[in-house]
Hints:
This protein is mostly beta strands. Helix content is 0%, strand content 52%.
Amino acid sequence: QVQLVESGGGLVQAGGSLRLSCTASGSIFSSAAMAWYFQAPGKRRELVATISTGGSTKYADSVRGRFTISRDNAENTVYLQMDSLKPEDTAVYYCKATTWRTYYWGQGTQVTVSS
């Protein structure tokens, strides 16, 4: 059974930084593309950033230049460094692991940015 566990969320003032972590159990991590999504109250879940097994990254326009996704295959962990945070970044952040066979979601971690 694969589990993804996110951590690192919290309350921060606008302009501040947070680093989210997502650690995967099981043996899928090195062969999985990883991604971060966010979901604000009453809105649909949206893609924030992705990182391939080879380390290639993509970002949503709204976070490009402020957020950085990275992965540590030795630690089975993907990170999301969030800088210059804005109130509109407030949401629950989820990580997702996608393999050739299926995908898995974490339980989410709340990020709240106060103005």
